[in-house]
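Entry:
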Amino acid sequence: MKFLILNGPNLNLVGIREPEIYGQESLEHIISWVTKQVDTLKYDLQWFQSNSEGEIINKLHWAFESKFNGIIINAGAYTHYSYAIRDAISAINIPTVEVHLSDINSREDVRKK
């Protein structure tokens, strides 16, 4: 089974940017940890991080064309206002799970929408 794990804007700075909110582990450390956890399952995990909305959409389309089985996405701030990413996810019809590094319900009001 093939899964795309997609990380959006500023997630390349995890571990540096606001560690009191996002933690002290780098994205590279998180990738390594997750890869080790699922290693015995023999899943094909493809990781991608971009600060560009268009690149994220292109990667979602690529996942569809490449017949991925699922997507895990942390769209960062795009979660709150990117209709284009939302539309791309709807268009490709691949099971998709949205995740966050912080509790969005305990953050600023704009992040709760």
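The mean pLDDT is 88.
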